[in-house]
Amino acid sequence: RPDLAAALRELRAQYEALAGRNLQAAEDWYRARCARLHERAARSQEAVRASRREAGECRRQLQARLVEMESLRGAHQSLERQLQELEERHNAEAAGLQDTIGQLEDDLRNTKNEMARHLREYQDLLNVKMALDIEIAAYRKLLEGEENLFNMGSVGLPSLNSLPSPTYSFQPRSFSSST
Questions:
Q1: CB-based burial, 116-154: b 16+ in 10 Å, e otherwise
Q2: Measured distance CA(85)–CA(81) in Å, rounded
Q3: What's the whole-model pTM score?
């Protein structure tokens, strides 16, 4: 009969050797797996740190942009107020200039009317002067005619007294002016 105890020992030794090898393989696999996981964890932690640094940089940039945006918004509002004030001032100046233009147009119209009136008066005076010049010329001719009669000597002194004395009278004439 075979030795059962020896076979069992041998089997046990084989199982223990197999279990030892399996245990060693499991430990090696576990260590390799842990090493890879530690390596991954280290890389992940580095990636997390890099992401945190990047997120912090983004936050700082965001804060800087927000501050810059607020300052630009304030500058924009200030410029809008200045623009509105300038528009109001220019509108007021334009209204004042429109009033001045209206007054100047009224003055121009009044001056034109006054000039037309003066022109009519001047034309009336010129017409009166021309009529007086014509009348003076007529009287001058009459006087020259009588002077010529007197100088001719054909008429004696006593006969002069018998002539009716001419009477000169100025009768103003009214002339209508055509402008």
A1: eeeeeeeeeeebeeeeeeeeeeeeeeeeeeeeeeeeeee
A2: 6
A3: 0.42
